[in-house]
Each structure stands twice: as structure tokens, then as C-alpha cells.
Predict the structure of rRNA-processing protein UTP23 homolog.
Amino acid sequence: MGVTRQKHAKKIMRFYKHNFQFREPFQVLLDGTFCQAALRNKIQIREQLPGYLDGAAQLCTTRCVIKELESLGKALYGAKLIAQRFQVRNCSHKNPVSGSTCLLSMIENGNPHHFFIATQDQDLSNKVKRKPGIPLLFIIQNTMVLDKPSPKSLAFVQKLQTNQLVPEYQKQSIVELKEKEGLVKQEGEKRRKRKRAGGPNPLSCLKKKKKKTQEGQESCAEKKKRRKRKRNRVKAEAMQSVQKNEGE
């Protein structure tokens, strides 16, 4: 039964790691009801939870949760001592509110700190399930259990796969890319300048070379003609002189 439960937890952790970018150390927010259940069932949260999640975990709570446990008196004195051992995360409440209200405020705006919620409060659990990407832990039959992904989380992932929704953690990247749009325009201007700049047309150079060769060919032909005429003139003069000598 323990092996099956461990495999179940690993499968769920892969889902949150792949689709919601959960990384170690895992941030686990605990309320007073979870601490009380752990005390009653003799569960060592700090020792057992990292092995169950298959990774390092940071256990934490809020001042509102501790204040709530203090206000409930001796009945939850042991749970208060357990909660006080964990890291206390700052919440936005100047005046203490209920533990469930405080924990819900810690996972607003898409749960940017990637918190797990550990609680036995059924009403809080239902509200957590209405938000995508928030792992839920509870205790049942003396063991800690990682709840399966809620329908809201499954629907969110399905929309991501069909490119119908942008996740919260990518929105900031999109904003930064839009701010860099000016750099893209400058690159476009540089490209246009490169197009306007040009050297001499290679075809015009070829034409000029052809003209020069033609002119050269014509001058050579004229020289040959001149030489031929000169030779003919010399021959004619020689013939005339020969004829004169014979007549004498």
C-alpha cells in the first residue's frame, strides 16, 4: 500500500513540475488543522514529507495562523508549538485574520511562489481547488496524502496545450518583449540603410570592357590595312623603276 501511495505521489508531482514549474525546495504552507491532525496521528511532518514528495521541502506558515492557534487556547496548544517550529512567511494583513483567509491570500495572482497548501479544513480545500496549479495535502488514516490535480488544474493545462491561454509566469516575459520593440525597429532601419548602399554595377563594367576590346580590334585592323597599302605602294614604285630601266 505504501509503494502504491508513493507512485501516486510521484505521478502527481510530475504533473505540477511539468505544467506549473514547481521546483525544489517545495514550499509547503500549513495551517493549524493540519498541525493538529499530525500531532494526533503522531506524524513527523519535517521528517516524512520530503520523502513523500521525493524532494526537499520548506515547511512554513503565517503569523495569522499562529495567532489563530493562540486564540483557541489549550485545546490547540500542541498544534501551536508545531506551527511555531516552521518558517513564518510575511502576509499582507496588519490585523490578524483567520488562517484559511490568510492562506488563500498567499496563493493569489496565480500562486507565484508555488506554494503547496496543507490543511484539514474542507471549506479551505474546496476554495483551493477552484484555483489552478495549487497542490493540496491532507492527512487520512495516519498518513499524509497529496490530492490529485483538481478539475480546474486539468482544464488549465488542456487550454495551455491548445494555445488558448498564457500562463501567469509567462506574462512578464511578454511585457518585456513588447518593451524591446524599439530595438526591433532600429534593426529594421539598419537593414534598409544597407539596401540603399551599393557599389558600381558589374554589368556596366563589363560593357565598358567590351567597348575597349572592340576599339582595340578596330585599331588593329586599320593598322593592317595601312601596312598592306604601304606594301602595295612600295611594290608599285619598284615596278615603275624596273620598267624605266628596261626602256633606257
Observations:
- The longest strand covers residues 57-62.
